[in-house]
Automatic annotation (TrEMBL):
InterPro entries: CheY-like_superfamily (IPR011006), OmpR/PhoB-type_DNA-bd (IPR001867), Sig_transdc_resp-reg_receiver (IPR001789), WalR-like (IPR039420), WH-like_DNA-bd_sf (IPR036388)
DNA-binding region: 130-225
Domain Response regulatory: residue ranges: 2-117
Species in which this protein is naturally found: Streptomyces ureilyticus
Domain OmpR/PhoB-type: 130-225
Protein name: Sensory transduction protein RegX3
Highest taxon of the lineage: Bacteria
UniProt KW keywords: DNA-binding, Phosphoprotein, Transcription, Transcription regulation
Pfam families: Response_reg, Trans_reg_C
Modified residues (4-aspartylphosphate): 53
Amino acid sequence: MRLLLVEDDNHVAAALSAVLARHGFDVTHARSGEEALQALVPEGAGFGVVLLDLGLPDQDGYEVCGKIRKRTSIPVIMVTARSDVRSRIHGLNLGADDYVVKPYDTGELLARIHAVSRRTVPDETTVPIETSLHLGPVRIELPTRQVSVDGSIVQLTRKEFDLLALLAQRPGVVFRREQIISEVWRTSWEGTGRTLEVHVASLRSKLRMPALIETVRGVGYRLVAPAA
């Protein structure tokens, strides 16, 4: 797999590139946001994943992520020292598929790279028969992957949509965290749990319906169907 590493620290980039190469990745190193954007022309330039550090010399990493997402659907993993939930949600809202908080374990990073690369391959066995789901003011169009609330389109990332669609198929039913991670993230790796929490928080915020997805302590989540 070709991987675009966006990192302004040459020493960090060299060490990480060596590790990634040992695990079969063909790494291209971009030292700035502009260099990264140029590397993705045309149409993503064949990269499978973008590993984007937010501390870039020429542009804010969030801005670069937004520009990448406008150009291509390549999975983007943000690398950040910001561990607060608000920063993570902001990154997801801009189109990031995942994030890694510094300092990170190399094994964790590799697992996340493999996880987001698997997400881009649709699994038709998990596609529900229904083409449209209606939950009070919420309408979920599965073929077009569009979500609207009271007729207004809500922009969701791929994983936010997948998560919402999964829960909405069986309103009121509790989905275990492990089950959600397995079906939405295609992995059993436990570290994805925090990513799940951030995606749930982001959905509640974007839909402006904090009570729509209920946390069942110690078990998982369920969708509480709103009144029509």
